[in-house]
Amino acid sequence: MKRSTTLITLALASALALAGCGTNGEENTGAASEAATSAAAGAGSTETTGTTAPSGSSSAQEISEEHNDADVMFAQMMIPHHQQAVQMSEMLLAKDGIPADVREFAQGVIDAQGPEIERMNAMLTAWGQEPTSESGGMEGMDHGSGSGMSGMMTEEDMQQLEDAQGTEAARLYLEQMTAHHRGAVDMAKEEVANGTNPQAVALAQKVIEDQEAEIQEMETMLQEL
């Protein structure tokens, strides 16, 4: 701080000296003012270099340890819910004869929900909970609505999607994924209403907004099949 003050003082003194020696008072006064302003700006930037977070800082990705049971339940249940959506989408993409717009949608589900799974596992780790593995989150769970995981497909549902081909597979996928998304929206609304962790609540709000929009998109695609 002392060094910055000294630099400003020297700059002002030099500028005033130039103004006094010149013959055009107006021009030299303007130059002095500009020099003083530049010196002050330079000194100010020197002072804040160590305290300003750099652009692109990972601080926005930090997860608060503050949480409650609703936050933990949201992550533990939404992870396998997302995993099943990714599984359904991968299953569809492995088939032939799927309309291009439905294929693009399915890939979008994978691209969006994969990172959200990683984010929720990071939340569980930050809260001292065990992260959910891909297999661990699915085994031994009742995939029906009775488990609280609204919209989950049963084993029979998944087998129907596996067996379907072409346009029929696309139609079944869209119908199943619409129900799946509605379940995710319901779960996310519970988190928004009851959760306390700011990152978990923000993610839940994003799930609501994204998947409600995707439900409308799927309904349009169903009408066009």
From TrEMBL:
Coiled-coil residue spans: none
Annotated ranges, domain DUF305: 71-222
Name under which the protein is recorded: DUF305 domain-containing protein
Residues spanning the signal sequence: 1-19
PANTHER family per record: SLL0788 PROTEIN
Disordered, as annotated region: 24-65
Keyword Transferase: no
Native species: Kocuria flava
UniProt biased composition (Low complexity): 24-60
The organism's place on the tree of life at top rank: Bacteria
Keywords: Signal
